[in-house]
Amino acid sequence: DGKVSEGGLNVTLTIRLLMHGKVKHFLLPKGETVKKMREESGARINISEGTCPERIVTITGPTDAIFKAFSMIALKFEEDINASMTNSTVTSKPPVTLRLVVPASQCGSLIGKGGSKIKEIRESTGAQVQVAGDMLPNSTERAVTISGTPDAIIQCVKQICVVMLESPPKGATIPYRPKPASAPIIFAGGQAFTIQGQYAIPHPDLTKLHQLAMQHPPFTPLGQTTPGFPGLDATTPTSSHELTIPNDLIGCIIGRQGSKINEIRQMSGAQIKIANATEGSAERQVTITGSPANISLAQYLINAR
């Protein structure tokens, strides 16, 4: 019904948790722990597949079931911390830390005007809450890190759920999918591969994007043809598109040492030029050149960043 009750909000909700490494010894042994959590909480709990160190744990159900599942997860982490301290010389006990994955469009409501909401959550629950400034790679989601005692964490999750229900995501959300640690990408024979060790592993998601970029519908050329960038025939009609990006956002488009903009160039097959900052201007000019499919894919990837 959406009303706040003693146990929470009696509506169905999905919360995504990002776990690094810990998931192996915590949720996976013979599936016993996660099976018990599902049965006792009544929530659906799914763990993303894959060989990368990060996994997404998706918890869905009525909010009371979600709170119960989080309570069990926080207590399990607390147990692990206590066990690790038994033979350790460390005297101060580290807090339980969980990372939620939240659509960026909801993070503004979570932070509140001038940081008022996040301050209120910190003060009323005793938990530490941090919202990441950047979106997670290739997604429109941000990591929200919460840490404290199990009780502080469960109170914090309750308040975050209230905010998420009151302020649903705006527009489409591109969910974060963990990828193996920074594997280089190559395109060959119309397919995308990631390099892992000595092997090239086919990458279907990137192959689809690459093939989309390489399709050239018969649009009227709007500009000069520009030969010389990968995957495009010199005779293919190309056009240019310009957009402006605020100076304070240009860093997340370029990435460290140009890593993100190079990734966007490689995935879209488009040429992308970023003009130098001009004095007195709060914006930078970005010129995208390529086929209409290249340009639309490059725009999509830039907007996602």
UniProtKB/TrEMBL annotation:
Organism listed in the record: Pardalotus punctatus (spotted pardalote)
Coiled coil: none
Xref: PROSITE patterns: KH_TYPE_1
Domain K Homology as annotated: residue spans: 11-78, 94-165, 237-305
Localization per record: Cytoplasm
Main location (coarse class): cytoplasm
One example GO MF annotation: RNA binding
Keywords: Cytoplasm, DNA-binding, Repeat, RNA-binding
InterPro entries: KH_dom, KH_dom_type_1, KH_dom_type_1_sf
SMART domains per record: KH
Recorded superkingdom: Eukaryota
This protein's name: PCBP3 protein
Keyword DNA-binding attached: yes
GO (cellular component) term, any one: cytoplasm
